[in-house]
Structures are given as structure tokens and as C-alpha cells.
């Protein structure tokens, strides 16, 4: 049986993954909306995290449900989905590599937003966009870490579940094969008996 601590840990991590995916989706959708307001397409730094956050909401919901249907194939599928999302968020972190500066003016996404808005005469919203860029970068890194941990935990749970199924399957086969083979004593006649 899988320990309640392991299930609780996975559930808590999944809850935070889902919550952070919703926040990342909202922030990146807001950025894309801002870029479109001054006639530009959303940059890859916003589009890729948006795509993987939408997928994370769907896949994480599936994985939370799959946690309670402890079949080996469901756990393996959850692990595969974690690998996909982990790679996606890793790619997003790579695209956001120029946005990890403490000073907001050095962050490339902030610069694109600031100068794009001022070029068409809109108010730049510098401080709020600076905070959102930092939030986006931080949450993407946190998602990379969380999906790595749930990937490992989910694989461990799948292995434990498979081992448990094998053990219970072996026990059932053993009990069925020995159930009908009862030994009945024979009377001793002093001769040799052939079996």
C-alpha cells in the first residue's frame, strides 16, 4: 500500500502546480493582450509559458484524479505528462533567461512592454509590469522544480503500485493452484503403491 504521506505530498504539490499554472496563464494572457494593444504579437517569452500552463491545468487535473485510481498505467501516464510539462516549463525558463534581473529595467520582457506602449502613446505601466515579469519568471522556475519532484514521486508511486499488484497476483495464483490439491490418506496395505 502506498503511504498516506506520499499521496498527501503528491496532492499538495499538484494543488500548487495547478494554482501556479492558473496564475502564469493569467499573467501571460495579460502580457499578450498588452502587446496586441499596441499592434505587436506576443513574444515567445509569454506565449510558450501560456501554452504549457493551459496544458498543466488539464494534465494536473487528470493526475490528481489518477492519484486516486492507483493503477499502474494511470501512474505511468501521469509520469509521462509530468515529463512533458517539465520539459515545457524548462523551455519557458530558458526563454525567460533575460528576465531574471533584480532591476526591472534590465528585464527584456519589461523593456518590450514599456517601449512598445510608449511608442504608440500609451501609459507605460512600468512598475506593475515589472512586478508581473518578476512573478512570471519566479513561478516558471518554481514549476520546473515542482514538476521534477512530482515526476520522481509519480514514478515511485507507479513502481510501488506495480510491485504491489504483482505480489497480490502471485498470492492469488498460488492460493488457486493449491486449493484443489488436497492430500487424502490411503490405507496401508503393506504393498508398494504407484502414484
Automatic annotation (TrEMBL):
Residues 168-181 have a biased composition (Polar residues). Residues 168-195 are annotated as: Disordered. Keywords: Membrane, Transmembrane, Transmembrane helix. The chain crosses the membrane at residues 15-35, 47-70, 76-96, 132-157. This is MARVEL domain-containing protein. It comes from Terfezia boudieri ATCC MYA-4762.
Amino acid at each position: 500500500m502506498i503511504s498516506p504521506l506520499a499521496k498527501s505530498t503528491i496532492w499538495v504539490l499538484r494543488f500548487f502546480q495547478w494554482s501556479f499554472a492558473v496564475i502564469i496563464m493569467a499573467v501571460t494572457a495579460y502580457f499578450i493582450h498588452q502587446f496586441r494593444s499596441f499592434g505587436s504579437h506576443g513574444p515567445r517569452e509569454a506565449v510558450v509559458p501560456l501554452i504549457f500552463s493551459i496544458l498543466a491545468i488539464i494534465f494536473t487535473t487528470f493526475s490528481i484524479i489518477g492519484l486516486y485510481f492507483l493503477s499502474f498505467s494511470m501512474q505511468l501516464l501521469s509520469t509521462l505528462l509530468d515529463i512533458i510539462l517539465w520539459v515545457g516549463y524548462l523551455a519557458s525558463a530558458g526563454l525567460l533567461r533575460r528576465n531574471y534581473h533584480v532591476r526591472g529595467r534590465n528585464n527584456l520582457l519589461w523593456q518590450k512592454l514599456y517601449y512598445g506602449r510608449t511608442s504608440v502613446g500609451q501609459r507605460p505601466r512600468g512598475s506593475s509590469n515589472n512586478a508581473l515579469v518578476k512573478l512570471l519568471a519566479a513561478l516558471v522556475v518554481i514549476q520546473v522544480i515542482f514538476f521534477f519532484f512530482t515526476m520522481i514521486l509519480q514514478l515511485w508511486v507507479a513502481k510501488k503500485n506495480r510491485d504491489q499488484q504483482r505480489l497480490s497476483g502471485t498470492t492469488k495464483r498460488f492460493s488457486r493452484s493449491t486449493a484443489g490439491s488436497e492430500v487424502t490418506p490411503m490405507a496401508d496395505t503393506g504393498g508398494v503403491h504407484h502414484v
